Each structure stands twice: as C-alpha cells, then as structure tokens.
Amino acid sequence: MEITETKAEGLTREFKIVVPADAIEGQVSTRLQELVHTVQLPGFRPGKVPVSLLRKRYGPSVMGEVLERTVNDSSQKAMSDRGLRPAMQPKIEITSFEDGSDLEYTMAVELMPDIGTVDFSDIKLQRMVVEADQGEIGKVLERLSKGHGTTETIETKRKSKNNDVLMIDFVGKIGDEEFAGGKAESYLLELGSGSFIPGFEDQLVGTKAGDKVKVEITFPESYGASDLAGKDAVFDVHVRELREPRPAAIDDELGKKMGLGGLDDLKRSIQEKHEREFRTVARSRLKRDLLDTFAETYDFEVPPAMAEHEFEQIWQHYEEHRKARDQDHDHDHDHDHEEDEFAGKSEDEIKEELRTMADRRVRLGLLLAEIGHQNNIEVSEEDLNRAMNAEAQRYPGQEQAVLDHFSKNPEALQSLRAPLYEEKVVDFILEMANITEKTVSVEELMKDPDEEKAVAEKPAGRKKKAAPKKKAAKKAE
Question: Is 450 helix (H, G, I), strand (E, B) or coil?
Fold first, then answer.
C-alpha cells in the first residue's frame, strides 16, 4: 500500500492512497474460499461448489464488500501510523478502480487540535448558596392555603371588589345571536383573577347580589376561536351571590391534604424542594462560569468543518425562531414579544455573531472531550439505562415504545449519551477546581446572567464598552 500526503494545512490533512490490485484479489479469493463452505447450490454437495462458479455468481458483491473493508482498514492505518486523531469521519473519494487494477482513492480528514493537559488547580469559581428561609416557606403555605380554601356567601348588602368571588349566570351574544361557549349558570368568578376576557371582570366590580349587568367586551385579535377573534360581544350577567374566599387553615390538616403526615412534614417538604431547585440553578450557574473561564483561557484552532456544521445548525434554529416570531407579530400586534437581540443588525452581522457562537461551542466541546479522554471518563451502560428510563417515564403508557426507540436508533441513543458525557466531565472538573461559596438571596441566584452582564457592560460616562467579539462569545452555552 502506498500512502502519499498531499496537503497539510492547519488541522486539515489530505492523502492519496493506492492499494495494489494483487492485495485486493487476494482478499477476494480468500472471501470466495470462505463461501465454499457455506453456500449451497443445486447439483453440488455442501463444500463442493467450484470457486469459479461462486466468482461468477457472487463476484460483484464480494468485490464491493472487500473494497469497503479495504478502504476502512487502509484509511485507519494511514492515520494510526502517523498518530493522527480525526475530529470527524474522513471524507473518502475513490478516484480509480477497475477489476484487476490498483485501487486509488483520496482521503481528507480534519484533526483534533493539540490542546495539551488542562491544569484544574488554576480554575477559580464561586458557587452560589441559598437557604430556604421561613419567609419563602410561608409564601408557599399561603398559596397552598388559598388553593385548598373555600368561599362563603357574604350576607351583608355590600358592593363587590377585587378578590371577591361572584356566583353568576351569563349569556354572551354577538349581535342578536348567542355563540358557542358563551353561556353558563352558577359560575364562580374571582374578580381580579384575569381568568376571563379582558374587561369582563372590571365591569362587575361594584355590583351587588341580585344585580343584572350588561358587560360589553371586544374579543382580542389573538383569541383562540377565530370566529370570535376581534368581534364585539355583549354578556347579560346575573349576579346571584357575592362570596368571600376563605383560605384553608395552615395546620396539620393542610399537610394531610397534601399527602403528608402534618404541617411539620409539609414545611420540611417545601424546604427540601426549594433547596433542590436552588442547588440545580446554582450548579447551572457554576457550569456556565466554568465554560466562560475555559472560553477566555483556551484559544486553539477548531476544525473548520465542525465549526461550519455547528453554525448551520445555529443558523437554522435562528431562522425558525425568526419566522415564528414574525408570524406572532402578524397575528397579535398588541402582544409584548420577546426582544430580538439582533434587532437593527444586517444579516452579515448576525451571521458573524452566530459564527463566533458556533466557534465557541465547538472549542468548548473539544476541550471537554479532551479532558474526558485524558482522564478516562466514560458513560456506562448503567448511566445510559438510567437516562433512558427517566426519558421513558415522561411518556406514561408509552414507556416500552420509548425504550424500543432508543434501542433501535443509534442517533437517538447518542442524543442521550452526549449530554451525559458532558455532565460527567463537568462534574469531574468541578471536583478538581478551586471553588468558594457565596451566600446570596433567591433573587440574585435566579437573576438572568445575560441581564447581569448587559448591565455590567452598559457604558456610563467615559467607561468603555466591552469589545463586541468578547460579548458575542459569551452568548454560547
């Protein structure tokens, strides 16, 4: 076999590989000899079929099998002999082959960059710590008390106000015609809850039991029923009763209603749930800070094809998001939409920022993969099975179908393996890093890091604004 390197630029290598015809013929002959012992043809005893007949009948398929194996084996040998670590599957193109002649093909491969050994002792991070205080637990108890409360009829003749509960009968009409879903009897409506069409509840504030009121509203343009959207309607409303909400007592009975032993168990359950949520958010913030630190510290070349592939995925996601946002604007002009972070920028400017994001993601992915490789970190079958079962439990009644889907689709299984591997590597790094703890409020923990960063980078007086390149890089992950 003859291997000639034809290109060596950055992380890109290209080779011309020639495999002699006699080496290919030798493999074909060996494979045909193996078939002699397994193939059965009419008129021949087992193991007595002539090789010439097998070559005539199975020669093309055997040749295809041999060529595929030869290309795989020779390309792997070309890389392993030179100590090359491919970042992606090599691109193979057969340039010349005829039966009885040499096999010639080209191989283009992008290599893993030389990252070197990562020193974890230099990584300094801060973990946010929040303790669930009694005030937070009290707020949850109040919500549960209200949710499990009742209402009592108000006997005094007073006017209704927000937070009162009205028992009403109503009939809605557009013009002189009633419409589907616009009629109910003995309906309990909490004033100020915002559960009805905008303007409906406001017109019932100040009413008394026994009042009959005409409520005039306009359905929003974005209303779910297209035959009602944007139309004016009148509701004939009869206020039958005026009631006050009576929250449930915060006692052992409330705890038992929640399936627990009593009030102390309920408080403990609320505190444990909050602390789990706080730990999850704190870990997410810690991971983000770790990746930001890596992005600022490690600057190495990334394989161009990997960066391009990542960019295409990000761009596709952005285009889909932009189209969905535009459709929302077309159907709901009054709705407060998510602000477009790229507003006012040209397509070229947007693409430049997204390419920076793609470059960051690929670099961080390669860095984490190298750390995992250097430290023999692997995703075990137990890890995968646990993740599959957790995913299956998200679809009650279809658990087996979900498990079958993963077992039959390697790509689906990889979609579970990749994030598991990343989290195991991150956990390993965090165990080795220098981490201090900082006690913060719930509000500070839950604050959006991007908003914090935007405030920090906002120019004030003569203070310089952060460089656009650095700002764009931080958006990844």
Answer: helix
H-type alpha helices, 109-247? 134-147
Residue with tokens 């005026």: 242
Question: Which amino acid belongs to residue 45?
Answer: R
In order of start, what are the domains of the chain with their CATH numbers?
Answer: 2-110 (3.30.70.1050), 150-246 (3.10.50.40), 263-333+344-473 (1.10.3120.10)
What sign for the dihedral angle of Cα 372, 378, 383, 388? positive
- DSSP codes of every residue in 408-444: H-HHHHHHHHHHHHHHHHHHHHHHHSEEEEEE--HHH
Q: Read off φ and ψ for residue 16, nearest 5 degrees.
A: -110, 125
Angle, helices 263-297/410-432, rounded to nearest 10 degrees = 90
Mean pLDDT of 446-468: 51
Read off φ and ψ for residue 205, nearest 5 degrees: -70, 130
DSSP 122: G
Rounded CA-CA distance 49/40 in Å is 8
**Could you read off the pLDDT of 285-334 as tens digits, one per residue?**
999 999 999 999 888 999 999 999 999 999 999 999 888 877 765 554 44
Which of 226-230, 247-251, 331-335, 463-467 is least confident? 463-467
pTM for the full predicted model: 0.67
Do the Cβ atoms of 393 and 399 come closer than 8 Å?
A: yes
Both tokens assigned to 128: 């946010």
Give dist(CA 161, CA 108) in Å, integer: 75
Q: Are 99 and 63 in contact (CB under 8 A)?
A: yes
pLDDT in tens, 157-196: 899 999 899 999 999 999 989 998 899 999 999 999 888 8
Q: How many other β-carbons are positioned within 10 Å of the β-carbon of residue 294?
A: 19
Q: What is the separation of C-alpha 389 from the centre of its chain, rounded to a whole number of angstroms?
A: 18
Beta-carbon contacts of residue 12 (< 8 Å; ≥ 6 apart): 108, 109, 110, 111, 303, 304
The tens digit of pLDDT for each residue in 33-55 reads 888 888 878 878 777 888 888 88
Beta strands in 202-331 (DSSP E): 212-218, 232-246
Cα angle vertex 342, ends 340, 348, to 5°?
150
Exposed, middle or buried: residue 52 (CB in 10 Å: 0-12, 13-18, 19+)? Answer: exposed
CA 297, 301, 304, 309: dihedral to nearest 10 degrees? Answer: -20
Return mean pLDDT, the chain: 86
More confident residue, 455 or 184: 184
The amino acid sitting at 179 is F
Tell me whether strands 124-129 and 434-439 are parallel, antiparallel or unpaired.
parallel
